[in-house]
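For the sake of clarity, the format in which proteins appear in this thesis is described at this point. Each number in the token line that follows is a code from a learned vocabulary of backbone shapes. One such record is shown here in full, so that the layout can be seen directly:
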Amino acid sequence: MVNYILFVFEGQVTEHDIMNNLKKYYLNTETDGVYLVSSNCGDIYSLYGKLQKDEDLDIFPLLTEKKVNAHLSGIKRRQISEIYLFFDYDGHAPAATDKKLNELLEHFVDETENGKLYVSYPMVESLKHVPETGFEHLTVQAKEKIGYKGLASNECKKEYISFKKLSHNDWKKLNLLHLKKLNKLVNGTYELPSQLNEQTVILQKQIQTHISTNNEVAVLSSYPVFLLDYYGVDSIEELTQ
């Protein structure tokens, strides 16, 4: 039986571009013996509300009932081995509060059940928001509209502008930088982490270090963090070199 790993997004373009590029180098039939497929959940808070009301409700039927996910019709629930949700911090959105986000992170903790949630700060474009210098200390406003998509494209290195064109070497460089940034946020040193970190811990560190003090977030992508969680600390050299 074919095993699928399901990525769940709110957006319908950028996130899918990243996934389609990522699976050239990771999570594919050649490297891991799995098929990576994507889906859209619409508003994640609405999805969470439905699951919260009925503890026996499974996330997969909620996704397959959406027209945008018609491509999932031939896949059985038992073929889905893992589910991962990717979400923007998006602090300026009316429905978004740090308390609600923490609730989401505490709910979506198991990839073998209703999914594990990963958050990008402030948005999915943080993956490419790597300037020539200064990424270690790069922060942006957390609760205001700042035109982040354009900002990230204007400030990033030119080789990272198009998610569709990222090479394996580009991914290794981005993994290296974002994972060092993760360790800087959580442990205070700009070096590769020696252990995994829960998403709730990352959010709390963002709140303590940046949001509550300066109303900012440290720019940090969820995708390198996910890859580290998936492959493990023992694979960190393969991910970054």
